[in-house]
Amino acid sequence: MHAKFRTHEEERKSFFLDSCCFQSLLFRLVFTLFLAMARNFQYYTADEALSKILADNEEEFFGAALSEADEDDIPVNMTHSEGDHGSDVDSEPEELNVQAVAAQFFAEEGPEPEAEVTGAAQEEFRCTCSKNCVDALDKNLVDQTRLNFMDMEKTEQDLVLLGVLEASKFEMDETARGTARRRVRFNYSFAGRGICVSAFRHIYCIGTKRYDNLRKHLEQNGLVPRVHKLKGKKAHNAFSFAAVQNVVQFLKSFAERYGIPHPAPLHGRSAAPPTYLPSAYMKKSIHLMYVQSCREATIDAVGYDVFVNVWKLCMPHLVIASPRTDVCETCQTHRRSIMSTTTDVDKLAATAGFVLHLNMAGKERDYYVQRTVTAKQELASLQAGQVDSLKCVHYTFDFAQNVSLPQLSRQDGPLYFKAPRKVQIFGVNCEALPRQINYLIDECDTIGQDGKSSHGPNAVISLLHHYFEHHGQHEEECFLHADNCSGQNKNRYVCAYLAWRVMTGRHKKITLSFMVTGHTRCLVDGCFGLLKIKFRRSDVYTMPQLAAVVEASAACNHAQVVANSGLEWRSWADFFSVHFKAVKGIRELHHLHFSSSSPGVIAAKKSVDGEEQNINILATSPEALLAAGLPSLLPAGGLSHDRQSYLYKTIRPHVPPEFQDILCPKPVQSASHADSAVESAATSA
Q1: Would you give the DSSP letter of residue 239?
Q2: Could you report the per-residue pLDDT of 576-587, keeping only the tens digit for each?
Q3: Can you tell me the distance from the alpha carbon of 568 to that of 438, in angstroms, rounded to the nearest whole number?
């Protein structure tokens, strides 16, 4: 036990250090956290903060010690009062000299490093000179200077320090002994008082190494900012731009060969339409293929991590399809069969069928890519004067999902539950250029009334015929790709039209191909996707505005408004029903070849490497077909009176006044509607 006859201050310090030693670490931690707060936010001074911490924790510190100590161990000034024996201790101890206690506490812990001493604890700093120049300075001013300096960026700090050093130079060429001065001397000052170098470093919060580096930089370079020696230099492990270009080119080629472009961006995203790679591939396996290609080409290959980073930055739209993203019904059927079978024999049989289907889809995809590449190469040869005519032009045609007018970039909620004016889009893509003509068909300009019969064989053949006559390359031979929709493309009438073209001398050879159902995504779908991106971000009320959106969506997209194109709807189906027969087994055929040397005969194959069979579809003589000329014209169906009334009453309020009479005009009674009204009135009479 400690002696009871020491001075009051000694007793208080002894009690604090001996009884609360188990809490000294906690006290130090709290005090250190406070210093950080004071430096960053300037909430308290050092005296206020230390007093606040002791006041908040005094009961905890002293209460635990008093409960465990004997009364004889407690200093005299902390025992019970005489008139209060047997009761709890309710008299408060005298106020501590917190500065003295903290000074003794930190003295036993050892001095803090010079670089970590903050302005809040400035009283602990002692300069190395004999004059104690820091003691003569205003402590509050020193603290404020330190805090302001620490709030600066490092570059700003360097500029301030370089300026102060430049102003502190001792401009004398000789020493006191009369010899030439070899080193630059500095006379430091602060607030008009001279200070030593240690006080200077303390006030500006810098260590010895940084101080020496700044002096050296000032002597060698003058008053200019410091620049890190590695700035602007290439890292030792960096790859050249050519290596990154090789990665991007490999990914592009890989996507062209194996990728399936999605027609539009995923829902809720504004990025480019994704291109799906088969789910059988992984990034690791694709990187191994890349490394092998680099070895064969004798170029440097990047590592896997760099390969993946370049993929994410430069080709983010190229993704590996999950098995769940496959929309092919045949693929889903095979997967369900594999999962539902129980025996090994059945699983092998189901797997074999699945593999056969995927192999066939892959071959058809390869054929499509081959045809597009060949068309581009031939066009380049024609432009270079190496060939005289085009024989491998490739076209892809399809319908896009219809769009509605008015289109608002910030969709009007009630329009979701209404039926705005519909516009059909039919695209024909010439991959060699590349250029896609997008036919915009208003609801009133289709063959059937109110937009009906807009996707039938008469509409498809009329659009194709107009494209070949006005936008084709006047080639002798061409290749076409389309999807497997029997109502639009894969039917007897489209086949008859292509046979009619070669028989009438418009082409010498035509090959129509269909990819496997569910694996038919191609470049025309990609252009549709770019169109939809621009369309969703625009306000569109009229057909000219829609045409402008199509033109602005991409360099490859061009608009053709059917109402202003001179396109004529014709009754192709009735015409060909007389002169051509149906194609037997057309659903199983994927390649149909038409040649002027075999008029009315189709050279058909079920797969690109399948056996070819000849099918004669001509029902009359070639002379009778040539003498028949062109089919009869079909008028546009227009809008019914009911549809006009609906647009006028329901959609017109959502259209700006200047476009209301264009998009939703006042209903006009058609001749057919007037005749039916008169007939109904006569019947009722």
Answers
A1: P
A2: 999 999 988 888
A3: 16
